[in-house]
Design a protein that fits this description.
It is a single chain. The protein is mainly beta. Helix content is 0%, strand content 47%. It has strands spanning 5-8, 14-17, 21-29, 55-59, 64-71, 77-85, 93-97, 109-117, 125-132, 137-145, 151-152. Strand 9 (125-132) and strand 10 (137-145) form a beta hairpin.
Length: 153
Amino acid sequence: MNRREVHTIKNVRLGWCFGALLSMLLMRPASGGVNLLVNGAFSALDANGRPSQWELTFEGPGMEGNAELVEGPGGRKALRIECTKFPAGGQAWVLLKQYHTVKPRKGQRLEVSFWAKKEGLRAGKVQVQLMNLKPWAQLAGTQAPVSEEWQPS
């Protein structure tokens, strides 16, 4: 992966927020090691055929959408997120999140990486944020470029 974002965590509970077509989500200590996210490859599915341990919500007045598993880079699974109703002029966003699966230590540095591409999305970037759940606050964030071709971020 050619681009890495490394952030220092100040609290211990994280949620995830982002949007686009995503594959192979990875969060690990900056010094290396195993993926701290559960089911980052979307390989384990729940009874409804959705990636287990992940919750997808469409937030904001009038915001609607759906998601499906598709083939991603190198034949791996990817999650295709489609907004079917996006209100003009309003605040709306897509949240893909895990609760209480990552338990970083205070001061720990984490590396976040994933594959992404866009389909019909005008913006050339997606936002990635690490969130503390209680109290709700952004711990770190960045924008990752996306194009019509799969690329690592």
